[in-house]
Design brief:
A hairpin with a 2-residue loop joins strand 4 and strand 5. This protein is about 65% helix and about 10% strand. By secondary structure, the chain is α/β, with parallel strands linked by helices. Helix 5 crosses helix 10 and helix 6 runs antiparallel to helix 8.
């Protein structure tokens, strides 16, 4: 429950005003419901008693009936307002929560990020956030509003009817409601969690089935994948059936609580009326109000059914939103940036170091290419330079400050895999520079020799499919490079930037990057001769990395 309360406080932070108003309206709805039924009961019994006593002609039926109509109409309008306020505020809070979760995820270490499947992580976040809509709507707002109504009913019934009736109703609903909530949570938590896990498994397998159906058919695996998806769906339905059963059981238990409260009010109130301590009409107020107060605990039925998925989602969201230990980047140097490695070593786990005693310095405008076979640490050097990895020892500095202290955008890394989204070419480019005008977008495309291709496809408004489909591998690569240029980085890190391009296009792209960023320090992992030829210096990394001194590094450079 601690995580659920934490999530509720987060949602209240941005929508406190709307949710407080919704909470007030929710309490008013419950209060008016109790008043409506209590007044109706009093009116019916009092009118009957007046008729039996022969005083019906002088009994005032107009004001009570007018109040009944007023309460009925006003309660309906208040319920509508409460639903609009609370649901709208909850949806806005959930939207902000999704953004906060994705922002927190982007700050995770490179080692954690590379273990994530993008689509799977996104589906998990969306499912967790969707599960949390019940935290305010079906848990805390109903509980708080119901508690306030029960306390007010205790006070009013003690005054209008009798303290004994009021205490009996209050005790039965509070103790009975809490007992049903605790009992239902203990019984429904595991099935609810299993239902959510099965739903996620089915969703993942069904998406895999749809997106890869051609490949599965070619390799004869389509029937097996269909069976796997059907098995996951069967588990989901079985778990949902158990959860529905628990919800109905909780609803039945709450009906028993309501019946006990009504019976207690009728028994105690009837006894007091028989003894002449109160009138039958006042006793009727207690009985009918007890029935109306069922509405204060009715939302617990849905809460019980969803408590398992809400608790699990709240725990994961709370963990993901914990503040990272990294310092907040705030360094904005005045002069052009230099990039330097000082005695840097890095190893993954307990393995031998990938690099050891590594020293390197790049001044503004320098282009350095890292050469060597796969596995010698070229990509690792780039990730260290980007601040995505932490060195085991030594320092990676930008303008004599740790690279992790620099604001995002000053150092930009373009990795081996292209990352594009479904949408227009302009939308993909403006991910890096939202305020860039069309002229700036075309200039970036021209720099990477992609302007002709994009014009032939319909210009900046040409639409790309999921993951940027619609472009070849080399075209996607160049679009990502154009997007990096729009950030105007002072240190640019490139991992095999011309992979998949022909010789002439590769040279044109490299010239375009140098012309677009003449003062940027560029460090790139280079397999191809075009990339090595574009560099001012080439550093060959040995297959078995040994400590490198500054003099050793100088000897491995070849200058153009």
């Amino acid at each position: 429950m601690r995580n659920l309360w934490h999530i509720f406080r987060i949602m209240m932070t941005g929508e406190a005003k709307a949710l407080r108003r919704g909470l007030l309206l929710a309490a008013l709805v419950l209060i008016m419901g109790g008043a409506l039924l209590g007044l109706s009961g009093w009116f019916i019994v009092a009118a009957s008693a007046a008729g039996l006593a022969g005083t019906g002609a002088v009994f005032d039926v107009f004001r009570p009936s007018a109040m009944v109509r007023f309460l009925a109409i006003t309660r309906t309008a208040t319920r509508y307002g409460e639903r609009v306020l609370t649901h709208d505020a909850t949806l806005r809070a959930l939207a902000r929560l999704r953004v906060a979760l994705l922002s927190a995820l982007s700050l995770r270490s490179h080692e954690r990020l590379i273990r994530l499947r993008g689509a799977q992580a996104l589906n998990r976040i969306l499912a967790d956030v969707d599960a949390l809509d019940g935290v305010p709507l079906r848990l805390f707002i109903p509980l708080i509003a119901g508690g306030v109504t029960q306390i007010l009913a205790l006070i009013v019934l003690s005054w209008l009817v009798a303290p004994a009736v009021a205490l009996a109703i209050f005790a039965i609903y509070v103790l009975g409601g809490l007992a049903v909530l605790i009992w239902g949570m203990s019984r429904a938590r595991t099935p609810s969690r299993r239902a959510e896990a099965a739903a996620q498994a089915f969703r993942t397998r069904f998406i895999d089935l749809v997106t890869t159906r051609e490949d599965l058919a070619v390799y004869g695996q389509l029937p097996a994948q269909i069976e796997t998806a059907q098995t996951a769906d069967a588990r989901r339905q079985a778990a949902a059936t158990v959860t529905d059963t628990r919800e109905r059981q909780a609803g039945a238990a709450l009906m028993v609580v309501s019946a006990l409260a009504g019976a207690a009010a009728l028994w105690i109130g009837g006894g007091l009326a028989e003894a002449g301590e109160i009138t039958p009409a006042r006793a009727a107020i207690g009985f009918f109000t007890a029935l109306a107060l069922m509405e204060t605990v009715a939302p617990l039925r849905r809460a019980v059914a969803e408590i398992g998925r809400m608790i699990g989602a709240a725990r994961r969201v709370t963990e993901q939103m914990q503040a990272p230990s990294d310092p907040v980047p705030d360094h904005v140097p005045d002069a052009p940036l230099t990039l330097s490695f000082k005695d840097v070593s890095f190893a993954r786990g307990a393995a031998r170091p990938v690099i050891s005693g590594f020293d390197l310095a790049l001044s503004p405008g320098d282009w350095v290419a890292l050469q060597g076979p796969s596995g010698v640490g070229k990509s690792t050097v780039l990730l260290l330079a980007a601040g995505a990895l932490r060195p085991l020892s030594g320092q990676v500095l930008v303008a004599d400050q740790p690279v992790t202290n620099c604001l995002p955008g000053l150092v930009t890394l373009v990795g081996q895999r292209s990352a594009l989204i479904q949408g227009t070419v302009a939308e993909n480019l403006r991910l890096a520079a939202p305020e860039a005008d069309d002229a700036a977008l075309w200039a970036a495309l021209t720099a990477v020799a992609l302007d002709g291709v994009i014009r032939a496809k319909g210009g900046l408004e040409a639409r790309l499919g999921p993951r940027g489909s619609g472009l070849s591998g080399g075209e996607s690569r160049r679009l990502v490079l154009a997007r990096a240029l729009l950030r105007r980085p002072q240190v640019l890190l490139l991992d095999e930037p011309t992979e998949g391009l022909d010789h002439a296009t590769a040279e044109r792209v490299l010239r375009g990057i140098r012309a677009a960023l003449p003062h940027a320090a560029v460090l790139m992992a280079a397999h191809r001769s075009e990339e090595q030829g574009a560099a001012d210096r080439v550093l060959r990394l040995p297959e078995v990395q040994k400590p490198l001194s500054a003099a050793g590094i100088t000897s491995t450079f070849t200058s153009k």
